[in-house]
Amino acid sequence: MNMKYSNLYIIPVLVAAIASCTKAEGPEGGVSLEGRAVSISVSVDAAGVSGAGTMAFKSNAAGSPVTRAEGSIPYAGSTLGLFLDYGKDSSEDPAPYTQSNILWNNDGSNNWTAAAPMLWGKASDNVGVYAYAPYLEGQTDASGVEFTIPTDQSEGLGAADLLWWYPGIENNKRTEVTAGSFTDGKIDIAFRHALIKLTVNFELASQFKGQNISIKEAWFHRSGNKVKIDFGGSYNGNVPSVMGDFNNPDYTVCSIKMHDCSAEGKLSCEVLFFPGPSRSDNKLLTVTLSDGRDYILTLDKNLELQTYESGFYVTGIAYEMNVKVGKDKLEGGTVTVAPWTDKGSLGDNFGTDATEYSEWGGPEDIATRYAGGDGSQNNPYLIETAAQLAFLAQEANSKEEYTWPESPKYFKLTANINLKGYEWTPIGTVYKRFVGSFDGDGHVIVNLNVKDAWYAGLFGWIQNGATVKNLVIRNASVSSVSQDSESVSPHNPQAYSGIVAAYCSAGCTISNCKVDGTVTSDYCAGGVVGYTDNSSKDYDGSIKSCTADVVCSVANSAKDAYCGGIAGILSVKLDACTVRGKVDGTVSAGGLVGWLSSGGVIGSDYGHVNYVYADVSLSSVCIPNMAYYDVGGLVGSASYGTKISSCYMYGRVWCAEGLELTDVAPIYVGGVIGYTDGVELLACHSFASVTAGKPANGKLGAGAFIGYLGAGVKASRCSYRIDGAAGLPVYGYKKDGTDDSGIDVEVRE
């Protein structure tokens, strides 16, 4: 097992042996269970559970029914699911008395009743007994009970409180359990929590003294939306586990509306969650005050909301976080962690970077000057309001001085900006290309909206060594549409979309930028930038230290189209970047890059990818009559002397079945690269699930690592995961006469 993979996604749960379980005599001892009805007793936690064959419904100190699992009190929820698994033998398939996911109902008093009869087999027979709550329909496989975490928990946590139980585990090693282990045929179910609980205690800063301000609502942003309980221990062959259901095409990092924040006088909120992959923006909480203002809490370091014990990550942990809400920022306080009954300590305090936002009034809200500065490198123009950012777009799109590479203008953002979803005019056009330096200084721009533009992004067209750095763009919606070729002659009519910039030519640098949102185009789209080239000897272009959490899609029935989580088309260096989300492309689709080549006059020194990470659901839209389709976990198509090193791909790479394609329209699907020739790969690893349905006509080349293997490809110290490859070979199609002796790719169990 690769430990990096397991730490990212899987949290095995430590379950103690049931103290009350004593082995009964076998059939020769005079005790016969075969054919007897199963009965159950239910509580929370495994310590010393005993009692009658049916559960005694208990109340709390005030006399009210207990409705949630808490401490070691009985579980008084209304439903649960129960599995009995006697396995298979040579004569019977399956063995008698095996029953999957039987519904048990609580009558609201003191009785649990099975919706279908459950009977014991022989006392000496080994049996798997698995229980979870609440009951879920359609869960026929004990190795894959799937649960969707509710994203609105504001009315209560009961529907989100996933519980589970399995007997017979000691020291995290699976042990055999017989039917006779259950005294009188009664199953004492001692549930454990499968998720994690977070309580946030809010304190209003002194600036709010004397004001009628309260917490209206709060959202938590670090949960996976789907979890799966593996009772069979099929993943590690050892203990049952709870894991993020990352092979599900709908798996995402979701936001959850927290419980009880809006109650009068309430200054704390709760949420139940499962730790999903870290967000690219490290956003943890969004808080809305009663006056309508939003605050965002982000982490300045990677705080993992999980506990590690005895070689395993464990759930059933409670966190408590103290947060001060001020007019200017959210301040993180002490964080403690503990089981839901006993509190303990977790690490140091952590800070935040959230501030209030300057709100834009729309396209007519344009300032007449910057907040300060003269535009020089040592004294940049200062932008502290949304209206001043709009002023930059107006000036750059109308004045020649913003296009002079010999005297570039410098800009610095000094406040967070909320563009409010108003339609934005990108900075820099095909006619007035922005040449300068924009320093976000770590600030955030939210709710960017560019609709059906030619060159769509915060920036439209930048070139000649232009730089954009230290910027966060959240909740962006960017789309572009190609123009009529005659109306824009002699310019290229094709459309480009990128959240930071649509088009970057003649050597540009985008560094330390974080984006999230949706990006669409009918030709070329990328999460950070649509298109980059390095057609100038005077400037070195690169995309470095950027992260994207995006849904990127390109579809066009008439021509080629490219889509990538970072860039649609790339011919500069890509270094230390991360992408998550979903990518769909018509022709070339890649988790990082749609199409990758070495660049311009510089040759093979560019078009390189180093130290990158992708976790995406990736597919090809596959429109009939196109020339080809290249789908790769990292890169859709790569050629011309490019190098890719130290890269990791997680998630899903796939192509649909039954496509009506022409005889000359091949599909190439690979865990790392769809189509490649003349490329060198070093230390690249695919942890992806790769599937490809056979088209109705046309060619298919599907490989666990490479779809199409052309000439001159080298791969060393690379690997892919065998259980994600669906029996696919290392490469799906090899060009005639190609020497594959340089392909060194390890297959990992």
Describe the structure.
The chain has three helices and 60 strands. It is an all-beta fold and 749 residues long. Among the domains are: 3-193, Immunoglobulin-like, CATH 2.60.40.2620; 196-345, Immunoglobulin-like (Sandwich); 644-661 and 668-749, no CATH class. Strands 33-36-39-43-47-50-53-57-59 form a nine-stranded parallel β-sheet, with no helix packed on it. It has an eight-stranded parallel β-sheet with strand order 32-35-38-42-46-49-52-56, with no helix packed on it. Strands 2-11-8-6-3-4-5 form a seven-stranded mixed β-sheet, with no helix packed on it. The longest helix is centred in the middle third of the chain and has 11 residues, at 386-396. The relative contact order is 0.06. Residues 1-31, 45-72, 308-312, 341-355 and 598-606 have low confidence and may be disordered.
Give the SSE map.
Blueprint (H helix, E strand, L loop, with lengths): L2 H7 E3 L26 E6 L34 E7 L13 E8 L5 E3 L13 E6 L11 E4 L14 E3 L3 E2 L2 E2 L11 E8 L2 E9 L10 E10 L1 E5 L10 E4 L8 E5 L10 E6 L9 E7 L4 E5 L8 E3 L2 E3 L2 E9 L4 E10 L4 E2 L11 E3 L21 E3 L2 H11 L12 E5 L2 E3 L17 E4 L4 E3 L2 E5 L1 E2 L2 E5 L3 E14 L4 H4 L7 E3 L2 E5 L3 E13 L2 E3 L2 E4 L9 E3 L2 E8 L7 E3 L2 E4 L2 E3 L2 E8 L2 E3 L2 E4 L12 E12 L8 E4 L2 E4 L4 E13 L11 E4 L2 E4 L3 E7 L2 E4 L7 E4 L2 E4 L4 E8 L9 E4 L8 E6 L1
Parallel strand pairs: 2-11, 12-22, 25-28, 26-27, 27-29, 28-30, 29-34, 30-34, 31-34, 32-35, 33-36, 34-37, 35-38, 36-39, 37-40, 37-41, 38-42, 39-43, 40-44, 41-45, 42-46, 43-47, 44-48, 45-48, 46-49, 47-50, 48-51, 49-52, 50-53, 51-54, 51-55, 52-56, 53-57, 54-58, 57-59, 58-60
Antiparallel strand pairs: 1-15, 3-4, 3-6, 4-5, 6-8, 7-14, 8-11, 9-10, 12-17, 13-16, 13-18, 14-15, 18-19, 20-21, 22-23, 23-24
